[in-house]
């Protein structure tokens, strides 16, 4: 593995061993047309459509579509690479345009790509009644809110009390998720070569009892963070676009995951250029 000078991301140069593919589409008619075209042309040049065991997953839509694809294939992260085509505005995960489809097909046919590896967030929920823990992987972020009103929780870093939080909620994001909801919470944009997670507050209330730092913090991969309910123990958790409700929660732990996502990069597109093109123009 080397740090790719062009992309500034952790990357492995390889001649990929791609044989099977699958497509995740946003479902609108234009994205579906592109899907049919990709299936037709990739099959014609010898690739096999295999929705269960794809070497390559092509998402056609937006970043939201890539999030769906990630969760569909989360059990195959070690064997699957992702690439995104956007049919709306430029995305962070979806960086090929519909007009560039012939170029993408040619690049896939040549099977020459760089694997770009991005960190993920691990979320583990443990319960008061010894129920088996619930574990999730997020590509963008996890938000934690109370199931009833304000979130009142103690926040620990490496099991040491850091602060007592009272407010709307907490957001833990990955570096690639730092341009999503985290950015709306005034979190920093983090380069995905930094294996880290970021904690941002969602509307904290500060007084003599509950006092929080008020600034986003970035935790390295060996620092995990625990959130423990103070009174109510029902939590609404969002894992990317997926909402979950958990009762009788003892603790929610967030950390950099051991698992990673691999993107097939058929041409360089440096992260900071994507940030500039998306937000500055
Ligand atoms: P959605 O309402 O369709 O997506 C919200 C927007 O977030 C879309 O414009 C989406 O881009 C964009 N987005 C997703 N991941 C991104 C990333 N890594 N960097 C920059 N923009 C990104 O909702 P959804 O499809 O269910 O997606 C859920 C995601 O929406 C969540 O993970 C959260 O990060 C994001 N979100 C953001 C805000 C906010 O910024 N205030 C609020 C709620 C949710 P596309 O249009 O290309 O799909």
UniProtKB/TrEMBL annotation:
It catalyses: NAD(+) + ATP = ADP + NADP(+) + H(+). It is found in: Cytoplasm. One of its GO terms (molecular function) is NAD+ kinase activity. It is an enzyme of class 2 (transferase). Keywords: ATP-binding, Cytoplasm, Kinase, NAD, NADP, Nucleotide-binding, Transferase. It comes from the Bacteria. Belongs to the NAD kinase family. This is NAD kinase.
């Amino acid at each position: 593995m080397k740090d790719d000078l062009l992309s500034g991301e952790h990357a492995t140069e390889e001649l990929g061993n791609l044989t099977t593919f699958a497509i995740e589409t946003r479902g609108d008619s234009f994205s579906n047309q592109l899907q049919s075209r990709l299936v037709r042309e990739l099959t014609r040049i010898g690739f096999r459509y295999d929705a269960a065991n794809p070497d390559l997953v092509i998402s056609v839509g937006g970043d939201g579509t890539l999030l769906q694809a990630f969760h569909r294939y989360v059990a195959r992260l070690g064997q699957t690479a992702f690439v995104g085509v956007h049919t709306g505005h430029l995305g962070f995960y979806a960086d090929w345009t519909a007009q560039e489809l012939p170029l993408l097909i040619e690049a896939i046919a040549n099977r020459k790509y760089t694997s770009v590896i991005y960190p993920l967030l691990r979320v583990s929920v443990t319960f008061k009644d010894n129920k088996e823990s619930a574990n999730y992987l997020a590509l963008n972020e996890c938000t934690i809110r109370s199931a009833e009103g304000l979130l009142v929780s103690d926040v620990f870093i490496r099991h040491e009390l850091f602060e007592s939080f009272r407010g709307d909620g907490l957001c833990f994001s990955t570096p690639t998720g730092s341009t999503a909801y985290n950015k709306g919470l005034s979190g920093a944009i983090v380069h995905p070569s930094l294996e880290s997670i970021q904690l941002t507050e969602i509307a904290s209330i500060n007084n003599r009892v509950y006092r929080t730092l008020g600034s986003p913090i970035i935790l390295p991969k060996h620092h995990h963070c625990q959130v423990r309910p103070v009174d109510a123990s029902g939590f609404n958790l969002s894992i990317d676009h997926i909402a979950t409700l958990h009762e009788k929660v003892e603790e929610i732990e967030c950390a950099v995951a051991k698992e990673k996502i691999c993107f097939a990069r058929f041409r360089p597109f440096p992260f900071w250029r994507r940030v500039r093109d998306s937000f500055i123009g």
